[in-house]
Design goal:
It is a single chain. Helices cover 43% and strands 20% of the residues. The chain has 208 residues and is of the alpha/beta class. The two termini are 19 Å apart. A hairpin with a 2-residue loop joins β5 and β6. It has a five-stranded parallel sheet, with helices on both faces. The structure holds guanosine-5'-monophosphate (5GP). The site of guanosine-5'-monophosphate (5GP) has 14 residues, from β5, β6 and α4.
Length: 208
């Protein structure tokens, strides 16, 4: 926690199989200081996933009622399921100086871009980062290696990946995840430099 600055909201997107979760887990081991925003989703939990930790797993009815209450900062339908970031997950952390990491798809990220155009507080907080696999061949290999997909969901994820890849130049930063160690080092450097940004400081970091 850092009371001298507002937290940043690091928005991380990239197609399934870009390796973004492995990447941020690795980078966060060395930087720390992040809290995750736990998204709501209507998809079924995968093996080992915990409710309230990986996601808030909710029914479609519950998701719709949260939507009606305007509870989401952004939401999207991805691979036939709904996903959304609760506003409540973001604002309190930002004000406490906690950095928040959002692992969201391109549609959701673009909604946050719109929000930034309207809300200066969000504009100062949000950093948009796109993670790319080195090639489509490598992407397919990684997805198949997961073993959690059926041929049908795999095909759908590959098709979506090509669409998502077109959004890379609407982000502030791009990380090519060619080799995990070096990509994580680049990501860590990005986080550390963002933590020095004067625009999020509420007062001087000087001791007295
Ligand atoms: P998965 O089902 O593999 O956990 O996630 C599928 C996709 O949904 C990923 O690309 C992930 O970034 C995205 N996603 C997860 N949570 C959210 C969210 O709260 N909002 C949006 N827009 N996308 C999300």
């Amino acid at each position: 926690m850092n009371t001298k600055r507002n937290g940043m909201v690091l928005i991380l997107s990239g197609p399934s199989g870009s390796g973004k979760s492995t990447l941020y887990k690795k980078a966060l081991q060395s930087t720390g200081g992040f809290e995750f925003s736990v998204s709501c989703t209507t998809r079924q939990p995968r093996e080992g996933e915990q409710d309230g930790v990986d996601y808030h797993f909710v029914s479609r009815e519950k998701f719709k009622s949260l939507l009606d209450q305007d509870a989401f900062a952004e939401h999207a339908e991805v691979h036939g399921n709904f996903y959304g970031t609760l506003k409540s997950e973001l604002v309190s952390r930002m004000e406490r100086g906690m950095d928040v990491l959002l692992d969201i798809d391109v549609q959701g990220a673009m909604q946050l871009r719109d929000l930034c155009r309207k809300e200066p507080f969000f504009a100062e907080s949000c950093v948009f980062v796109f993670v790319m696999p080195p090639s489509y061949t490598e992407l397919e290999k990684r997805l198949r290696g997961r073993g959690s997909e059926t041929e049908e969901t795999l095909e759908r994820r590959l098709k979506n990946a090509r669409t998502e890849m077109e959004y890379w130049n609407r982000y502030d930063y791009v990380i090519l995840n060619d080799e995990l160690e070096s990509a994580a080092a680049r990501f860590t450097a990005l986080i550390e430099s963002q933590r020095l940004a004067v625009k999020r400081m509420k007062e001087s970091p000087f001791y007295e």
